[in-house]
Structures are given as C-alpha cells and as structure tokens.
Amino acid sequence: MKLNVVEKGKEKISIEIVGETHTFLNLLRENAWKAGSKQASYVIKHPYLSDPKFIVRAKNPLKVLNDANQMILEQAKEFQSEIKKKLK
Q1: How far apart are CA 72 and CA 28, in angstroms?
Q2: What is the pTM of this model?
Q3: What backbone torsions phi and psi does residue 5 show, to the nearest 5 degrees?
Q4: HEC string of the chain?
Q5: What is the pLDDT of residue 47?
C-alpha cells in the first residue's frame, strides 16, 4: 500500500491511499470515527482515474489514524480467531 501525504496540519491530515477501494476506506473511516475524529471521510473523484483521498480532522489526527489502524488489526485478529474455532 502506498500513501501520499496531501496535507498535514495541526488538526487535519489528508492522504491519498493508492490502489485502495471503498472496502478498506469505509473500514478506516468507521474506526477513525470510533477513535474520536471530528471528521473522517474520503473522496474518490473517479474510480479508474484517481486515487482516493482520506481526510481526518481531530485534535490529534495522526493519533486518530494510528488508533483506527490498531482497531482494524484487532478486528482482523478477532475474525481470524472465530474462523479457526468454527472451521476446526
């Protein structure tokens, strides 16, 4: 996964996430809201010609992104554990 920082301010971060789609971006957005962002959204100007831009506004947007990422990892581990239990 490749990231391009579009804007980095005290209370706002905007990044392009190259090659990602609604699936990952919705997961990240949902968890950024849970992590305490004031705004967590993304824009895909054209599905084939542009990379999505993800925007976070918060008192500490980098912390929100890191916390959201950690939540995604924990959810994936929980899912993996449940799959292992059910498919013994």
Answers
A1: 7
A2: 0.90
A3: -80, 120
A4: CEEEEEEECCCEEEEEEECCCHHHHHHHHHHHHHCCCCEEEEECCCCCCCCCEEEEECCCHHHHHHHHHHHHHHHHHHHHHHHHHHCC
A5: 81
Q: Phi/psi at 19 (nearest 5 deg)? A: 80, 0
Mean pLDDT of 31-38: 97
Q: Please say if the pLDDT value at position 48 is more than 90.
A: no
Going from the C-alpha of 19 to that of each of 36, 55, 58, 82, the distances in angstroms are 26, 16, 25, 29
Q: Please give the structure tokens belonging to residue 50.
A: 């542009």
CATH class of 2-86: alpha beta
Percent of the chain surpassing pLDDT 70: 100
